[in-house]
């Protein structure tokens, strides 16, 4: 399989590194197209062989073309790559909000896959939701899922609109976690801890809680009940969270993120 990654930013490089590290593809079969010349030179300096500054005939030989660019860059890119894209080639887009139908209109192929990865993909702990056009075969979907799984875990959805919710939950999700952690770190510092101490207390707490959730078949609500004893410190915090309607605020925030994802796709 020959793969072209268009865009050498964070996610483009993440895919390149992950595919190679997991032996999903040989280095000779991996191609990168990047419109910043300094990035072209960077990729070449770290051992990538097939790195290009401009689209050309090499695109016709690709089995999979990955669009790892910003949605606003498509107007400049599509007219340049369209003459080289063949009808039978598969395109995987990780651009937020750009619908399959839009990509079908802009590109000469109907075989489109859309995916929404998140930031932890950079360390092999990502969560990716993805879907595909009906023209993409089950075998091709399976092969692409194997590639996506080199960066973590993935879920396939028949309904493309689910990707708006994926964007709101897992795509944006790391920012919500960092937001909560930051509030805890700031509060710990107000309580007299140094920044280093506060960060260690909070970071290890989050890591430990997630690992507990992963290794035991116990729900979040059950874990909360186990930690929060009657009349204790945890209960005092949870009562305050309830008074502030924190759960409702989080839910409304997620709905706002989903709504924005839907708007961006129109």
Low-confidence parts = none
Distance between the termini: 34 Å
Estimated helix fraction = 40-55%
Largest sheet: 8 strands, mixed
Rg is 22 Å
Return the string of H and E elements: EHEHEEHEHEEHEHHHHHH
CATH architecture label name of the largest domain = 3-Layer(aba) Sandwich
Helix- and strand-based class?
A: alpha/beta
What does this entry look like structurally?
With 266 residues, this protein is of the alpha/beta class. It has two domains: 156 residues, NAD(P)-binding Rossmann-like Domain (Rossmann fold, 3-Layer(aba) Sandwich); 92 residues, ProC C-terminal domain-like (ProC C-terminal domain-like fold, Orthogonal Bundle). Helix content is 50%, strand content 14%. It contains eleven helices and eight strands. It has an eight-stranded mixed β-sheet with strand order 3-2-1-4-5-6-7-8, with helices on both faces. Helix 4 links the parallel strand 5 and strand 6. Helix 6 packs across helix 11 and helix 7 crosses helix 8. InterPro entries: 6-PGluconate_DH-like_C_sf, NAD(P)-bd_dom_sf, P5C_Rdtase_cat_N, P5CR_dimer, Pyrroline-COOH_reductase. This is Pyrroline-5-carboxylate reductase. Pathway: Amino-acid biosynthesis; L-proline biosynthesis; L-proline from L-glutamate 5-semialdehyde: step 1/1.
């Amino acid at each position: 399989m020959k793969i072209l990654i268009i865009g050498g930013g964070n996610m483009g490089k993440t895919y390149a590194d992950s595919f190679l590290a997991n032996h999903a593809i040989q280095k000779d079969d991996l191609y990168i197209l990047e419109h910043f010349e300094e990035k072209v030179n960077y990729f070449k300096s770290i051992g990538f062989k097939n790195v290009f500054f401009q689209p050309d005939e090499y695109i016709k030989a690709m089995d999979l073309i990955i669009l790892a660019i910003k949605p606003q860059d498509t107007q400049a890119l599509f007219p340049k790559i369209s003459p080289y894209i063949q009808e039978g080639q598969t395109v995987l887009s990780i651009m937020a909000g750009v619908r399959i139908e839009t990509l079908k209109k802009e590109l000469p192929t109907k075989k489109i896959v859309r995916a929404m990865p998140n930031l932890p993909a950079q360390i092999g702990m990502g969560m990716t939701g993805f879907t595909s056009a009906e023209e993409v075969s089950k075998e091709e979907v399976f092969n692409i899922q194997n590639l996506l799984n080199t960066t973590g875990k993935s879920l396939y959805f028949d309904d493309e609109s689910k990707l708006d919710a994926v964007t709101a939950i897992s795509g944006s999700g790391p920012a919500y976690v960092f937001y909560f952690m930051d509030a805890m770190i700031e509060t710990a510092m107000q309580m007299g801890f140094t920044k280093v101490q506060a960060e260690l207390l909070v970071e290890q707490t989050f890591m430990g809680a997630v690992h507990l959730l992963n290794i035991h078949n116990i729900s979040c609500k059950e874990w909360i009940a186990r930690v929060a004893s009657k009349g204790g410190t945890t209960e005092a915090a949870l009562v305050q969270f309830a008074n502030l309607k924190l759960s409702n605020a989080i839910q409304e925030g997620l709905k706002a993120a989903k709504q924005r994802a839907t708007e961006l796709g129109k």
